[in-house]
Each structure stands twice: as C-alpha cells, then as structure tokens.
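R.M. (postdoc): so does anyone remember the format we settled on? I'll just put the structure tokens first.
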C-alpha cells in the first residue's frame, strides 16, 4: 500500500507535501506580483465559455491571451518541478 502511494505521488507523502507548499508559495508570490487572483482565472474561463457560446467561435480569438495566461503559471511550475527532480 505504501509503495503504491509513493509511486502515485512520485515521492513520500511528507516530501510531496513540502514540495506542494513551496510551489504554492512561489505561485502565490508570482500571482500577487502580477496582481492576479484565483477568482480572476476562474472568471476568465467562465467568461471565455460564455463568449464562445454567445458569439460562436469568434471568441477563439482570445486563445492566445488564455494560452499566455496559462503558460505564465504552468511553465514556472514545470521548471520548478524539473529542478526538484534533477537531483535524482
């Protein structure tokens, strides 16, 4: 059972928790610096779906904006997670 949990998490539960805390702090700091809030992201997704529904596929013009917004969170997370895995 313990091996299955470690395999699923990629590490021990304690180390995974510490990694998640560190990544959360970094993402929170970055989001604060840029003035982003989690609700803004959720509202943006909701607005995108509503615009897509109401105006057809013309709303896909915002695709690049959403791609950059998502990449601003995902790419740093990816780099941080790769740095943590580099030690292995």
């Amino acid at each position: 059972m313990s091996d299955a949990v470690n395999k699923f998490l990629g590490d021990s539960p304690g180390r995974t928790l510490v990694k998640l805390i560190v990544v959360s702090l970094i993402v929170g700091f970055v989001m604060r610096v840029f003035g982003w809030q989690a609700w803004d992201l959720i509202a943006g997704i909701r607005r995108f779906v509503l615009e897509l529904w109401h105006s057809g596929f013309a709303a896909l013009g915002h695709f690049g904006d959403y791609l950059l917004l998502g990449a601003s969170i995902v790419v740093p997370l990816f780099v941080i997670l790769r740095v943590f895995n580099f030690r292995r």
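R.M.: ...and that's the designed sequence above, right after the tokens. Also worth knowing: Residues 63-86 form the longest helix (24 residues). The radius of gyration is 17 Å.
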